[in-house]
Fold this protein.
Amino acid sequence: MRINRVVSLVCCLCFTTVFINGCKNKEAIVKTEKSKKPNVIFILADDLGVNDLSYAGSKYYETPNIDRIANEGVEFTQGYAACQVCSPSRASILTGQFTVNHGITDWIGAETGEKWAKRNNTKILPSEYVHTILTEDITIAEAMKAGGYKTFFAGKWHLGDEPSTPENNGFDINIGGWEVGSPKGGYYAPWDNPKLKYKYEGENLTMRLAQETVDFITENKDKPFFAYLSFYAVHGPIETTEQKWNKYRNKAEAQGIPNSGFEMERVLPIRVVQDNPVYAGLVESMDDAVGLVLDKLKELHLDENTIIVFTSDNGGVASGDAFSTSNLPLRGGKGYQWEGGIREPYLMKVPQLKNGPKKIEYPVSGVDFYPTLLDLTGVKIKPTQKIDGISLAPLLKGKSVNERALFWHYPHYGNQGGEPVSIIRRGEWKLIHYWEDGHDELYNLHKDMGEKNEVSKSNVTVATQLRKELDNFLTETKAKIPVQNSKYDDALSKKQYENRKTKMRSDLEKQRKDFLSKDFQPNANWWDSKTTKD
């Protein structure tokens, strides 16, 4: 009995020691996590519309993982891309500048001047633009790297060829980023990407990019990291699996399939319903990939020390390209000057900021990510370029910031029907200046976010003041202004419009019904490609 009591006492002491040490170890882990610089994961979708997510109100697409970021973080309800097409927006995120200041004002590869006008018979000659990030500009990746972060890039780059690569712009590791703007060869292997070889036929590119990101996080979990996951999804070619297509075809049928899915916008037909089962499957695949990253953060206990950003580079493709989605009640889509072309999902989860607002209505832009992330991480690097964005940290903490103007300059034509414009947004007002004929449109976005009512004539003072501020901005930034096309053929233009209004719209309605047909089977591998120009 005496021996048993001794043994029990020893066991009790051992247990107590282990328990205390265990608590100390746990406290040490927590202390280490709190003292470590916050990690950053920046997730950038391609061509994803602000209303393509279930948290935003879509009744068709299902995005539970992106919804997690919205529910656990902060939603900026008036978040904007810096341009209505991809390359300029992406350069603005990396440099913190409006497009007119870094000079990339169109997607890299787009034709300009007489070459464009001859092919497309347009009223003006689109301006020239810069084709790479300027070497003298310090990207956010270079700033984070100098601030002690391990940097990683995966996915779409589309900001120039050698030497304008991710590796030469601050990223220690580059997986899949090169000059091409769409997934060459599609989303299922065999794909063609010199920066990312596929492992087996049928491999999903979107999930592979997420897995590469997860591997990077795992290997660098003990040091601060900046991971930039730049999906090719949901850019065309739109593709999905038979299983996901079938799920969303049945869902569309259950919700009721309208006889017509398109209306005529100013230049091209535009989709007005969300019922494309191929696109829906692609959206869900991207959401699955986001879930893979979020789950790994939680598994490694990094979720409480990792800032997560989720956004897109321009509006959803409602008109042109694959005519994939509808951005209603917003007008337009990718390439367009209206809200559907530039309004974006804009989410930030900052775990170290507790009890902050869940939704922020202050208008924000892709140019704001740069100063905000430097502020939140304590990185003190001073960029050489002028930063147009502001830190959103005060807003995230529940404070206010002064009203400011946002600017867009797009002296080009979008493949999707967008027109050459410059835009200013200040407060509730948005003014669009059209370079074809010099007219302006004014909208009150608080009363009319669908931009149905042009009100410049009833608000002359506001229109005049905004136009003056926009003109001053363009002068100060030495913006390149497009010139008239002396060879423009008005009769041909009217004929082209009638063809788009009749034959193109009819073809689109037929394709829409084909996608929703129970007998739809694109090819032997099932998924299909529809190429796009950018």
